[in-house]
């Protein structure tokens, strides 16, 4: 017997579970379908982000940073550590505990907001007078109907041609989070967010890490000045990054992986690694959705085709997050999920792609919002720039972390903030002030005139804003 809902969300990741909660808050009878399983085959909502992405990676980044501090920088604070050891099993167990806490938190939120949860894989069956019939394939198979359907099925790691993930030697983000012994030599293909974060984790724990990147520039999407500073700092830490390489054959042995590649000078190279992490991007997850069965249009890259409001080719079918165009970011998915629920309710949900922040949780962290300097030059926009180094910030000195800088880009005439770029301590937290400022179309002068607490890292933000007008006070 079919169960009828106003809104059915397929996928319980950041876009899906948030869309379901917001729809329920707006008074709709709402269901959310998600197939992620924990170690005991129980439900594990939260998608890639919670299970094998944002949350577990941050847990390991934090743990590995503590380990590195204990081994290298505690002595500067007068803290003597003798017999430092690594209990990797406990570190991974802590990560798993944090993941489960987030899974359970989402299930609690569903219950609190009266969202009906179905554990299984959701797929389209057919369209009918009452909406769309959706099949849920789980421990048992059942059918539900939704007047509105929100597709939030996320993305999967992209594999190298002829080198499929086995999660033992060739690892996706999932396998990279579950290595049971620190590899002596670790290879990483792709110097993006996942590659740099996972490379940083295992380097701190003792691995010799080599990162192979096809692009000729380091972090091409990041402001060039910030990217150069970050590359210099990562190299100093011991992260070996090779740019402009062409990957050839990847072959696995019993206990190692051999990668043949051509370096940026055209010379043939060969490297043997204990483990290989492949982080060359992600592809939309529409497998098993039965999009073709109901005529749901996909674009040439396999994404669900949507307009600016996340409407698909089918009436009352919407799609959000990694499965549609735009940046593959959890917080972008969340904002789209909220906006779609509100549009279903006749409201005017809105997502401003120009003020979506980006963060790389390495040490130092890298965060930015808005335009880069190279983008403004290419667009012919007249701008002013101001920078301030953390080495001149009192709180950074007290923390013992003075690497990096804050950079402001503002319109040359109006002084409106066009972009803010940070490499340094707690950049992920500092960027929020810039996002708020840009949402309100603030000027650099506005930030420069706001009183910031002393001593705080946020003073570097104020000083960079002052530097736009060449009147920084502490540098």
UniProtKB/TrEMBL annotation:
GO biological process: 2-oxoglutarate metabolic process
NCBIfam families named among the record's database cross-references: lipoamide_DH
One Pfam family it belongs to: Pyr_redox_dim
Record key words, sorted: Cytoplasm, FAD, Flavoprotein, NAD, Nucleotide-binding, Oxidoreductase, Redox-active center
Cofactor binding, per record: Binds 1 FAD per subunit.
Name recorded for this polypeptide: Dihydrolipoyl dehydrogenase
Gene behind the chain: lpdA
Coiled-coil intervals, chain numbering: none
Organism: Noviherbaspirillum saxi
Reactions mediated catalytically: N(6)-[(R)-dihydrolipoyl]-L-lysyl-[protein] + NAD(+) = N(6)-[(R)-lipoyl]-L-lysyl-[protein] + NADH + H(+)
Pyridine nucleotide-disulphide oxidoreductase dimerisation domain span: 356-465
Amino acids binding NAD(+): 190-197, 213, 281
Family label: Belongs to the class-I pyridine nucleotide-disulfide oxidoreductase family.
Active site: 454 (proton acceptor)
Disulfide bonds: 49-54
The keyword NADP is assigned to this record: no
MF GO annotations: dihydrolipoyl dehydrogenase (NADH) activity; flavin adenine dinucleotide binding
């Amino acid at each position: 017997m079919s169960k009828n809902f106003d809104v059915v969300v397929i996928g319980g990741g950041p876009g899906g579970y948030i869309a379901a909660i917001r729809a329920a808050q707006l008074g709709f009878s709402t269901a959310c379908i998600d197939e992620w399983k924990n170690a005991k085959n129980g439900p594990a909502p939260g998608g890639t982000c919670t299970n094998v992405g944002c949350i577990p990676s941050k847990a390991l980044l934090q743990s590995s940073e503590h380990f590195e501090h204990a081994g290298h920088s505690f002595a500067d604070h007068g803290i003597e550590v003798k017999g430092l050891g690594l209990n990797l099993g406990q570190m991974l167990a802590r990560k798993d505990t944090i993941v489960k806490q987030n899974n359970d938190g989402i299930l609690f939120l569903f219950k609190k907001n009266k969202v009906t949860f179905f554990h299984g894989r959701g797929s389209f069956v057919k369209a009918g007078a009452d909406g769309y019939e959706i099949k849920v394939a789980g421990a048992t198979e059942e059918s539900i109907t939704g007047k509105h359907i929100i597709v939030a099925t996320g993305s999967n790691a992209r594999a190298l041609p002829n080198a499929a993930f086995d999660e033992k030697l060739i690892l996706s983000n999932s396998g990279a989070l579950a290595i049971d012994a620190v590899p002596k030599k670790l290879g990483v293909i792709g110097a993006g967010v996942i590659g740099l974060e996972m490379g940083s984790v295992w380097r701190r724990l003792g691995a010799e890490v080599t990162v192979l990147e096809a692009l000729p520039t380091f972090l091409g999407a990041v402001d060039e000045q910030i990217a150069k500073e970050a590359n210099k700092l990562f190299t100093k830490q011991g992260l070996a990054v090779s740019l402009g390489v062409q990957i050839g054959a990847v072959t696995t042995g019993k206990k190692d992986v051999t990668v043949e590649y051509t370096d940026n000078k055209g010379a043939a190279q060969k490297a043997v690694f204990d483990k290989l992490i492949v982080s060359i991007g992600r592809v939309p997850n529409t497998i098993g959705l039965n999009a073709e069965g109901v005529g749901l249009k996909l674009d040439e890259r396999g994404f669900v085709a949507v307009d600016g409001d996340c409407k698909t080719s089918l009436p009352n079918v919407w799609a959000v997050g990694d499965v549609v165009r735009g940046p593959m970011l959890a917080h972008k998915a969340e904002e789209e999920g909220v906006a779609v629920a509100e549009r279903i309710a006749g409201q005017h949900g809105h997502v401003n792609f120009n003020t979506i922040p980006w963060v790389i949780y390495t040490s130092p962290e890298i965060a930015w919002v808005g335009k880069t300097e190279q983008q403004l030059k290419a667009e012919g926009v007249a701008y002013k720039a101001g920078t301030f180094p953390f080495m001149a910030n009192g709180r950074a000195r007290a923390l013992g972390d003075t690497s990096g800088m804050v950079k402001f880009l503002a319109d040359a005439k109006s002084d409106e903030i066009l972009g803010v770029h940070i490499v340094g301590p707690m950049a992920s937290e500092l960027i929020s002030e810039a996002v708020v400022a840009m949402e309100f179309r603030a000027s650099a002068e506005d930030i420069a005139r706001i009183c910031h607490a002393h001593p705080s890292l946020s003073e570097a933000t104020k000083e960079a804003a002052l530097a736009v007008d060449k009147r920084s006070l502490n540098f």
